[in-house]
Amino acid sequence: MLENPVAVMAAYTAGSMFLSVTMARFSPTIGTKLRTFFAGFGPMVVVYGSEIARENSVVLHGADLLLAGAMLALGTGAAFLAGGVVKKPRKSALLR
Q1: Within a domain: residue 92?
Q2: What predicted TM-score, i.e. pTM, was given to this entire model?
Q3: C-alpha–C-alpha distance, residues 52 and 45, integer Å
C-alpha cells in the first residue's frame, strides 16, 4: 500500500516532532504523557487517511502493519525527545 516506506517514516517522524514541539511551546498545560501520545499517534491518522482517500478500498498487508508499528515507535520516541528539549515559556508579568 505505501510505495516509499522510508520517505513516509521520515515525514512521520518530522510530523511527530513538530507536533510535540508546538504543543510543548504553545500549550504548556498539557502533560508530557498526553503530549507524547498525541504527537506520536496523531500523524498515523494523516498517513492512513490519505491512503484511504485515494482509493475506494484499501487492503493492509503484514508489511503495512509492521511499518505502522515501526512508525508509531519511532514517532513516539521522537516526540518524547523533542518535547523534552523545548523550554517552557515564562509567565508574563501581566498574568501575575
Answers
A1: no
A2: 0.74
A3: 10
Close Cβ partners of 77 (under 8 Å, ≥ 6 residues apart): 40
Q: Would you call 29 helix, strand, or coil by DSSP?
A: coil
Q: Is 7:69 a contact under the CB 8 Å cutoff?
A: no
Domain that holds residue 52: 5-87
Cα separations in angstroms, 4 against 8, 26, 51, 67: 6, 33, 13, 11
Residues 1-55: tens digit of each pLDDT: 567 878 888 888 888 988 888 888 888 788 888 888 888 888 888 888 887 888 7
Considering the domain boundaries, does residue 71 fall inside one? yes
Task: List the one residue out of 90, 81, 60 whose CA is nearest residue 17.
Answer: 81
Mention every residue, 6+ apart, whose C-beta is less than 8 A from residue 67.
2, 5, 8, 9
Cβ neighbors of 93 (< 8 A, separation 6 or more) are none
